[in-house]
Amino acid sequence: METISQDTLSLWREEGSHLIPQNFGVFRSLVVQAKTLVKRRKYEEAAVCGEMAAWFACGQPCGLFVSFELEQILLEIGKQSIEHNSYLRKDSSISKSNKPKNILHVCTSVMSIGGLSKMLWRWIQQDTESIHSLALTKQESNEIPQILKESVNQSHGKMYVLNKEVNGIIPRAKKLREIAATADLVVLHVYNQDVIPMIAFANKDQSPPVIFVDYADHLFWLGASTSDVVANLRESGMHLSQQRRGIKPQRSVLLPTVIEPIYRKLSRAEAKRKLGFEENAIVLLSIARSVKYSRSVNGISFADAHIPVLEKYKNACLLVVGANHQDDWLEAIEQTQGRIKAIAETENTAIYYQAADIYVDSFPFVSITSLLEAGSYGVPLVSRYPYSSDSSAILGADMPGLTGNLIRVRNLEEYTDALSRLIEDEEYRLSLGEATKNKIAQTHWASNWQPALENLYLRATTLPRITPSLVSQDKMFLSEPDVFLPSVYGWYSDFILAIQPYLKFIPLTQRLYYWYRLVKKHGLRNRISLLLPSWFYLSYQDRKIG
Q1: Is the torsion defined by CA of 460, 105, 62, 475 positive or negative?
Q2: Rounded to an integer, what distance in angstroms lies between the CA atom of residue 270 and that of residue 354?
Q3: Which phi-psi region, left, alpha or beta, contains residue 523 (left: φ > 0; alpha: ψ -120 to 50)?
Q4: CA distance 136 to 144
Q5: H helices, E strands: number in the chain
Q6: CA-closest candidate to residue 136, choices 166, 163, 174, 167
Q7: What Å distances lie between residue 476 and 49, 61, 201, 408, CA to CA?
Q8: Omega of the bond leading into 256 within 30 degrees of 0 (cis)
Q9: 252-254, strands of its sheet edge to edge
């Protein structure tokens, strides 16, 4: 039995080939609106329209991983709306030491959970020779993590929350450019659709070198035209950036995710006892957000895929941390006598990793951070990759520290065989876990990560500044992996609801059009305020800031 049958892949391919042109049409209409607004010199409204287009392309795959047409519009906005500043190019002074002293990190928003924020503060903590400042373009209501504040302060850097200082995209872009005037290097850790850095750094002669960290390498993003170097976290992301985003090889660098050293506080037997399991129990573990377990494929849920193994080995169990309550798991749980346990999301995952004998990746959404964390405890790793072509590698799990040790299988038969061997052969299981731990430590632990960071700095500060690509119109792709993305990653289906936060800032005619469609579909409740003009909303926000 296959995890994803060829019939299902064919169906996904057919659906993607049908949906992508429709999505591309919506994206194109937003790009045209932005271009028209630029011609009318309505730069703020054009920037909002541009962000709407990027936001849509992130959530509804359009056969694009980059839009140079949209990026050219944003560059034009930046050049026309922001005056030249007094930035003094520092290439010659940097090249003597090849090490930037003042680094400005730019984020859209940060939070206490998630790989982006953790990567950021570990980066700052590890690079003790530089001064690290942080600018947040659109910090949400989440509290800025204390560890991040402390990391910035200890490096003698400053923190700027732009949406608490000024309102509007153009004013924030101007402020960001002003802040960057004293930086030797800018590092972007931004959301895919954030237009502010592109507008701020549109004039490369007036900007420091820019590094873009490619966190969401499987989706569309903005920044290819302004990033002097792209830091790729994994090989598949690097290959995709070169092939589909037009990133030249010399501007593409591999920077593994940095993780803190992980040491056991409990033996595997002690952790099992604390969780209520016998020492001879075989614990299969998976940890991810609930959305990564919510999709059944071929009518087979994540829980269903483990029934053959659990029926064969009565001392085995499956713990799924983050699954919460999944209605379609109930039959599998009953069929395995309750040995499949769906556990609520928690930040306290260490005891589960320490109890695990085997780690099984989430599916069809992989969870690479969890793979690295599990492997760091010496747990062997198994992940599913049902695609027949390497051109879809971006949909699978890979990381520099996993190469050579991660078990990847294509179908459920291979999956069951791989798990069976790990369960039956304790020596193989333990030796593979140990090899996995050592490779991750050698590649991703902070002290061993430093050379990769220094190579990134060197490349960014010595390469000539990037010259943006010129294209007349974007080309839509209907090949792999694009055709699979709507089924695997398309994460919202209601465009009108998705762009609701932007409606206050677009021209009245378009606002009325989208507002009418929104109200017709979702009702009037709490949506009258969307008709208020942007100046009223911004004035209200300014009073809140003041």
Answers
A1: negative
A2: 9
A3: left
A4: 10
A5: 22, 13
A6: 163
A7: 20, 10, 27, 31
A8: no
A9: 159-161, 131-136, 102-107, 185-189, 210-214, 229-232, 252-254
- 331-339 contacts, C-beta under 8 A, 24 or more apart: 331/304, 332/301, 332/303, 332/304, 332/306, 332/307, 333/303, 335/307, 335/311, 336/306, 336/307, 336/310, 336/311, 339/310
Does residue 236 contact residue 217 with C-beta atoms inside 8 Å?
yes
Please state, as a whole number, how many other Cβ atoms lie within 10 Å of the Cβ of residue 178.
Answer: 15
- Tokens representing residue 23 in the block: 């999505």
Both tokens assigned to 34: 């932005």
Q: What is the tens place of the pLDDT at every residue in 20-45?
A: 999 999 999 999 999 999 999 999 99
pLDDT in tens, 71-101: 999 999 999 999 876 555 555 445 455 689 9
**CA-closest candidate to residue 199, choices 49, 74, 386:** 74
Tell me how far apart the alpha carbons of residues 127 and 130 are, in angstroms, rounded to a whole number: 6
DSSP 186: E
* Amino acid (1-letter code) at residue 536: F
Q: Indicate the residue type of 303.
A: A
Say which residue the tokens 């369960």 belong to.
Answer: 423
For helices 43-59 and 68-81, the axis angle rounded to 10 degrees is 150
Kindly report, residue by residue over 313-367, the tens digit of the pLDDT: 999 999 999 998 778 899 999 999 999 999 998 888 999 999 999 999 999 889 9
Region 156-183: what's the mean pLDDT?
94
Residue 170 in contact with residue 82, Cβ under 8 Å?
Answer: yes
Tens digits of per-residue pLDDT, 429-469?
999 999 999 999 999 998 899 999 999 999 999 999 999 87
Enter the DSSP assignment of 192.
T
In the predicted structure, residue 126 carries a pLDDT above the cut 90: yes
| Amino acid letter for position 279 | E
Tokens 């092939």 belong to which residue?
Answer: 243
| Entry field: residues in the chain | 546
